[in-house]
Specification:
By secondary structure, the chain is mainly α. It has a domain of 136 residues. It is 41% helix and 0% strand. The chain starts with 74 loop residues before the first helix and ends in a 24-residue tail after the last helix. About 9% of the residues have low confidence.
């Protein structure tokens, strides 16, 4: 019977050397406090993130409406817009009355001042052209007024120029009838209101908002390159 071979006991496993103790870092400590930088930002409260504040909006005398976040419309601009649209309504009402009065053949010369300046026959081309003429005059008056009323409310500075042009063109209502004449003083008052200081400040506020100035971020200085000192092995 063969002799049994001696058995050797297994060698114990060699353990890795213990790692050096590292300085514990608090979980609530901001990341900026754990960096060894020569220049630091201001300390932030626990858990807060360091951010840069937006540059302040220039104040030019027109407060923002808290409901819309846009510049508050002054009363002068509100009144100018309302008067512009009222002027449009008066001219359109006058034109409709001209159409109505021109239906009877004998009353056609009395329908408007322009129609009374020409001798025309019922159903003639001249009467058709006169009807087209009063319509074109109405459009020349109402279109600038409507543009002024809308864009003045929206804060466009050039609406003052369109309001002045609309006031000048409103004199064309003299060729219609008495009902259209009331649009002339309304258009003139609306144009004057848009040149007052409150309206000018309102237009300037919108111009600044639509054309913001280019703001550059502050330069970054004292940038640390490479591993942090605590991780260096000199």
């Amino acid at each position: 019977m063969a002799a049994e071979e001696p058995t050797t006991s297994p060698q114990p496993r060699r353990l890795a050397p213990p790692e050096p103790d590292l300085e514990p870092v608090s979980a609530t400590e901001p990341a900026l406090e754990r960096r060894d930088q020569p220049a630091r930002v201001l300390d932030q409260p626990g858990g807060a993130i360091a951010t840069l504040e937006a540059p302040p909006v220039p104040v030019i005398g027109v407060p923002d409406d808290p409901r819309t976040g846009e510049p508050r419309v002054p009363r002068t601009v509100v009144l100018a817009s309302v008067l512009s649209f009222l002027s449009v309504a008066n001219v359109v009402a006058g034109l409709l009355l001209v159409y109505w009065d021109a239906v009877p053949r004998d009353n056609f010369p009395n329908a408007s001042w322009l129609m009374g300046q020409f001798v025309t026959e019922p159903g003639s081309t001249g009467r058709v052209l006169l009807a087209v003429a009063v319509t074109v005059i109405t459009l020349l008056i109402t279109v600038p007024l409507a543009i002024t009323g809308y864009y003045a409310w929206a804060g466009y500075r050039w609406s003052r120029i369109s309001g002045t042009i609309a006031a000048a063109l409103s004199l064309g209502a003299l060729t219609l009838n008495l009902y259209a004449w009331s649009a002339i003083p309304l258009a003139v008052v609306a144009a004057v209101l848009l040149w007052l200081p409150p309206a000018s400040r309102y237009f300037l506020a919108w111009w600044v908002r639509r054309h913001p100035q280019q703001v550059f971020a502050p330069p970054t200085v004292d940038v640390f390159y490479g591993p942090l000192p605590r991780y260096r092995q000199d």
